[in-house]
């Protein structure tokens, strides 16, 4: 299950996007922040490689 909706607040969560954001934050700590374009491409790439 890669996506789920919180039964308490109703917010929709996507584990792959959350994992990508966590990896981006770690990369930013090590190498400095990505540009907005780099961030978008990083997340698009992570979404494309999701295991179904």
Descriptive labels:
elongated, 12% strand, 52 residues
Question: Low-confidence parts, pLDDT < 50 over ≥5 residues?
Answer: none
Compute the separation of the termini in Å: 9 Å
Largest sheet: 2 strands, antiparallel
SSE-based structural type: mainly alpha
The gyration radius over C-alpha positions equals 13 Å
Approximate strand percentage: 5-15%
Average pLDDT confidence is: 78
Sequence of strands across the biggest β-sheet: 1-2
Please describe what this structure looks like.
The chain has a two-stranded antiparallel ribbon. Helix 1 packs across helix 2 (36-48). The protein is mainly alpha-helical. The longest helix has 17 residues, at 15-31. It has two helices and two strands, in the order E-E-H-H. The chain has helices at 15-31, 36-48, and strands at residues 3-5, 12-14. Strand 1 (3-5) and strand 2 form a beta hairpin. It has one domain (15-52). It starts with a strand and ends with a helix. It is elongated.
How are the elements arranged and paired?
Blueprint: E1 3-5, E2 12-14, H1 15-31, H2 36-48
Antiparallel strand pairs: 1-2
In short:
This protein is mainly alpha-helical and 52 residues long. Helices cover 58% and strands 12% of the residues. A two-stranded antiparallel sheet has the order 1-2.
